[in-house]
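Thread title: Can someone regenerate the structure for this chain?

I was given the following input by a collaborator and told the matching structure tokens would be attached. They weren't. Posting the sequence so someone can regenerate them.
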Amino acid sequence: MAKWVRMSPRKARLVAKHISGRSVPEARTVLAFTQRAAAREIEKVLRSAVANAEANHGLNGDNLIVSAAYVDEGPVMKRWRARARGRVARIKKPTCHITVKLAPAGDGAIAPKPAPTVAAVPPTPAPEPETAPTDETQLEAEAQTVEESEQAAEPQAEAEPAEEPEPEAQAETLSEKPKPKRTPRKKTEESED
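Best answer:
Regenerated them for you:
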């Protein structure tokens, strides 16, 4: 554990999620190439946990898995900054507690996450070709259904709206509208001369 680390817990959790469930060598590689500042702090905690496992329990560090990595919120330090016209602004300096738990790889611990696999979809069978009817009664029945469908389509065609009038006819109807009446101008002496 690392307590009272001067860092926002939200930002540290983003990095801690990357190493949870991975092997120690893989987690070290991920942290080495992560550009966030929290990666350095979490890497220190991981190094400490591996050292504790090797020294206290006689385990090999490369055969361990990160079973849990989480970040808890610590106390927030409150500071003040002077602002214009005698006012002040609050500054919050958050802290967090970082915890990394390790477990042996073959001891029923969390196994590394397998890559997601896509289930194979069986191909759909091709439709069977239709066979031509052999009986004359079947041919007559199909002919009747075709005639009925054509007759049903004819009334729909009649129900369509009438054709639109030609553009010339539209122009005539527009010109037939009454124009507003204008009052004649008042004649002045200058205009009469």
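The chain has a mean pLDDT of 81.
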